[in-house]
Prior knowledge:
- Two copies of one chain form a homodimer.
- By secondary structure, chain A is mostly helical.
- Helix content of chain A is 69%, strand content 1%.
- In chain A, α7 runs antiparallel to α9, α8 (159-169) packs antiparallel against α9 and α10 (206-233) packs parallel to α14.
- The two termini of chain A are 25 Å apart.
- The model of chain A has no long low-confidence stretch (mean pLDDT 92).
- The interface between A and B is large, with 67 and 67 residues.
Amino acid sequence: MYDFAADSAxxxxxxxxxxxxxxxxxxxxxxxxxxxxxxAAMRHGSLEGGKRLRPLLVRQAAAIFSVxxxxxxxxxxxxxxIHCYSLIHDDLPxxxxxxxxxxxxxxxxxFDEATAILAGDAxxxxxxxxxxxxxxxxxAEVRIRLxxxxxxxxxxxxxxxxxxxxxxxxxxGFTEAEIAVMQAMKTGALIRASVRMGALIGGADxxxxxxxxxxxxxxxxxxxxxxxxxxxxxxxxTMGKATGKDAEAGKQTVVARLGLEGAREMLDRTVSEAVSAxxxxxPRADGLRATARYFASREK
Amino acid sequence: MYDFAADSAxxxxxxxxxxxxxxxxxxxxxxxxxxxxxxAAMRHGSLEGGKRLRPLLVRQAAAIFSVxxxxxxxxxxxxxxIHCYSLIHDDLPxxxxxxxxxxxxxxxxxFDEATAILAGDAxxxxxxxxxxxxxxxxxAEVRIRLxxxxxxxxxxxxxxxxxxxxxxxxxxGFTEAEIAVMQAMKTGALIRASVRMGALIGGADxxxxxxxxxxxxxxxxxxxxxxxxxxxxxxxxTMGKATGKDAEAGKQTVVARLGLEGAREMLDRTVSEAVSAxxxxxPRADGLRATARYFASREK
Lengths: 300, 300
């Protein structure tokens, strides 16, 4: 029996320890000694935080191919570093202008704006350095595919492009289809990359990769739906960040369009869709199934 | 006879055309369609500009190993994208707060701050996407080494770390040795990565790579020295950006310490050092020799 609570807690511990070990002056690459301040800011923006869902997805997808969890960790750390850099930059005054993240001061509040910009840039860069490291996977062909996958998930046609679309959408006038594309890119693309990276580490063939991509795209939509719902239903205390911001900003979320119950029904259908995509994999995909269901039930 | 003016002009044209072709919605990777606005900002921040010295170094180092210039271009584009992202972020109000770059409005002036942050993030990410593309080099082992090299040159122990040290140094109290480390990281590390990437494309052995690294480190110091000298001697009109900023900010450059003549003598010695490191390579290294000498003579 797969135990989601145990596996996700174990993964979160492994990610915390892995990031803490990797994000030191001694470990990071480059011809010169890193500045202590940028390392401190990178650590502030990435340690002691988050559910580490993306590394969990890497681990769970790799588990389908019997990859031991420690072999899926480096790629998981790289995805998490991308996620954390995006939060640091999104929190900046010129973007969402948030003072708190997980109940603690955001990086530009704890340090300053210039340091937050640089710490984000550094986390983004070091994510690729980590993937290039032979310790991540012995086969260079797999490592370079991981680089391509992470870049595709986080770049212009993925997370960053989605973030840009989100800002443009705040000015109003987005159609429902445009909102769906924006959300698939802003949060979906990195979830998709996480699952596909786990599959690539496991040596998935084209058919398995395609099924797992279908899972990941549905799971990403479920994650976003849950987020939109929580923005309406949760309190700032539970979430450790401001809520009700979407409605305040007049954002065209699914909740605004379908109402709370309609959005919850759509969430259930989307989770079913994700789980259905895994039908050929048997019990080794129970981790991914549990994560999709968790998206529908999470309370923060 | 190697013709520096012709080769550098040809390289600049190739980089301009290559970036313009790569930075379109159709070419960039990712599951979704990139936002037009972020692509426009990436193009504003990277096209029609600059001397393209880093791609030239990639090409010149690769030429030692008889690599045709078009085969050195993709890696050169990747380095140039990193250079351009760093300029976009450095120009932001929270960093150097510059309104003009090469005589045109900086990206945050032509667009806005959020767009400039995202365009920088996107260029940084797409640089690694480009290196991962099989079109960059047929051998995955070489491509992943290019990723490692570029990340090392531009990350915490390289360019970004140097930028952080520079900001800290502006508060004063840096020793001469600390300034040297900062400059080696801030501008030297990416020059070093450019030369080494050219060598890796050419299949350089450890000995050749070591000689070229020695060249690159001296050339990087020469480049920085020339920059410090130009900040004192050039006019804003020639440079297309503000000058005299170092002295105004009380920056501890070599010019401030040795005076203008002392700095010029040191620049000549450093160029000699760079050229000496190439002695085993014969005429195929004339390109790199010419670039080091160009650093000593440039007027903008």
